[in-house]
UniProtKB/TrEMBL annotation:
Superkingdom of the source species: Bacteria
Designated name of the protein: Cytochrome c-type biogenesis protein CcmE
Keyword Membrane: yes
UniProt keyword list: Cell membrane, Cytochrome c-type biogenesis, Heme, Iron, Membrane, Metal-binding, Signal-anchor, Transmembrane, Transmembrane helix
Primary role: Heme chaperone required for the biogenesis of c-type cytochromes. Transiently binds heme delivered by CcmC and transfers the heme to apo-cytochromes in a process facilitated by CcmF and CcmH.
Encoding gene per record: ccmE
Protein family (similarity comment): Belongs to the CcmE/CycJ family.
Organism: Arenicella chitinivorans
Length: 154
């Protein structure tokens, strides 16, 4: 190998090393901004990581909405007809939020497996279902949720 070929090889190795280092740093920086989309069943079976942001989709269980003593914090359960997750949200809920409505909550879990939501999304009329929620829980069976003995299949 001639001296000029060695120099080129060193330059190529340095460039590849720099690209690999930049890629590693970019991936590490993006990990803090990842949001995992989960259903209540997945949360209960797989568990959660602390300090990780989750998007939780499901139906607001009927009769589960409770206003806390401070008057602005609400607590309710999100269900996929198989499992429930308790969600706590401080602030004004969307106008279209109601029990039995498909919603998406964004937030982080506490040690007690309560999702402290920073955002609650509910959209449009009773026919609207977020794409993630529609895929996960099949809204056609939602009315059977309270009477279902097991998982709703589609």
């Amino acid at each position: 190998m001639s001296p000029s070929q060695k120099k080129r090889l060193i330059v190529v190795a340095l460039v590849l090393g720099g690209v690999a280092l930049a890629s590693f740093l970019a991936i590490m920086a993006m990990q803090t901004s990842f949001e995992y989309f989960k259903t209540p069943s997945e949360i209960n079976s797989e568990g959660v990581e602390q300090n990780q942001t989750y998007r939780l989709a499901g139906l607001v269980r009927k009769g589960s909405l409770v206003r806390m003593d401070d008057g602005i914090t609400q607590q309710f359960k999100i269900t996929d007809c198989v499992a429930d997750v308790v969600v706590q949200y401080t602030g004004l809920l969307p106008d279209l939020f109601r029990e039995g409505q498909a919603i998406v909550s964004v937030g982080k879990f506490t040690n007690d497996s309560v999702l402290i939501a920073s955002q609650v999304l509910a959209k449009h009329d009773e026919n609207y279902v977020p794409n993630e929620a529609a895929d996960a829980i099949m809204l056609q069976q939602a009315s059977k949720c309270d009477n279902a003995d097991g998982p709703v299949e589609y």
